[in-house]
Amino acid sequence: MALGEEEFLACCGSAKFAKLMVSAGPFSNYQEAVDAAREIWFNKVDVNGWLEAFAAHPRIGESPPQSHKSPTFAQWSKGEQSTALTTATDSTLQELHELNARYWQKFGFVFLICASGRSTPEILSELKRRYQNRPIAEFEIAAQEQMKITELRLAKLLSPDTAAPSGAKISSNMDMATKAGDRVTVIGGHLTPTPPPGHTRTRPPITTHVLDTAAGRPAAGIEVRLEMWEDPQSRPLFHQIDSNCWKLLGSSTTDKDGRSGQLMSISDALNPGVYRISFDTGKYNPEGFFPYTAIVFEIRESQKWEHFHVPLLLSPFSFSTYRGS
User: Fold this and answer.
1) What's the CA gap between 13 and 9, in Å, rounded?
2) Residue 296, beta-bridge partner list
3) Secondary structure string (H, E, C) spanning the chain
4) Strands 308-309 and 206-207
5) What is the pLDDT of residue 241?
6) CA nearest 235: which of 264, 276, 270?
7) 57 an active-site residue?
């Protein structure tokens, strides 16, 4: 079946996607069109095309603008949100509006989900869960959701004889995850974060302090070491605790407030990689449970402008950590 760019724009708001689908057609059946769409979307549309497609969608719970470039897209979008709208209350709509705004502020694009058949509580739950993601991970998920929407709309475009059967499964998650995972590795290069305006560090990017919860006071006099895994071709494994791939960045001793001195130099961009902070807890409390404590964590490319504060909370029988900004 021969379809034009206007029809494919109704399925996916990327102009490049629509143009490439026309070039790949005509398609004799639904599956042929879907196979081409997946290949084009995940392997040929660039980061700008993905963002253009995302921008074509209204926020969940809102109607598309009357000036939308594709009236069919707007009509289908409204229909796909019908279940959400009929299951919404004033309070859930308000919560959805607030979370949508927070999501946009964090990621820079609309929260995208294949909303067909989903209730407002379902969508809210997914929005809260995905809000915790890192931007590059969420970008990949949004691309997968766009593909699900595209497949549903391709079925609407094709005739009943060639469209997907009513019980057909729309794209296996594993297949899409594999394609998106490969693609997002390339696209990640376009998403390397830049420092926020006016960003200048006034302290090292990794800091720590130790609190003795049993005594109810900061733990002073504990030696602290910060190391980084040197081998870019491998990752530290559980049995490599004493590997010579760990490079010492700095050491210090906690002061009366339980805070360590400077463990590394002050630099705006932190080198991505795996780090380890070790605490000589055995010397601090020879009768305690832990002769020493080590915390291993990974900092990714998208996090290199952040500050990582890794406290250690000591109790008589355990320790716990959390990361704060």
Assistant:
1) 5
2) 276
3) CCCCHHHHHHHCCCHHHHHHHHHHCCCCCHHHHHHHHHHHHHHCCCHHHHHHHHHCCCCCCCCCCCCCCCHHHHHHHHHHCHHHHHCCCHHHHHHHHHHHHHHHHHHCCCCCCCCCCCCHHHHHHHHHHHCCCCHHHHHHHHHHHHHHHHHHHHHHHCCCCCCCCCCCCCCCHHHHHHHHHHHHHHHHHHHCCCCCCCCCCCCCCEECEEEECCCCEECCCCEEEEEEECCCCCCCCCCCCCCCCEEEEEEEECCCCCECCCCCCCCCCCCCEEEEEEECHHHHCCCCCCCCEEEEEEECHHHCCCCEECCEEECCCCEEECCEC
4) parallel
5) 67
6) 276
7) yes
Averaged pLDDT for residues 74-94: 78
Residue count of the chain, please give it. 325
The amino acid that residue 92 corresponds to is T
Residue 256 has pLDDT above 60, yes or no: yes
DSSP string computed for 239-262: T-TT-TTEEEEEEEE--TTSB---
**Which residue's entry shows tokens 């639904």?**
30
CA 5 to chain centre: 31
Residues 59, 111 contacting (CB under 8 angstroms): yes
Ramachandran region, residue 271 (left: φ > 0; alpha: ψ -120 to 50; beta: rest): beta
Instruction: Tell me the C-alpha distance between 156 and 154, whole Å.
Output: 5
Closest to 39 (Cα-Cα) out of 14, 17, 57 = 17
pLDDT class for 65, splitting at 50, 70, 90?
low
CA 140, distance to chain mean position in Å, is 7
How far apart CA 184 and CA 302 sit, in angstroms, is: 13
What count of Cα atoms within 13 Å lies in the side-chain half-sphere of residue 30? 21
pLDDT at 186 over 80: no
Is the Cβ–Cβ distance between 22 and 12 less than 8 Å? no
Mean pLDDT, rounded, of the chain: 80
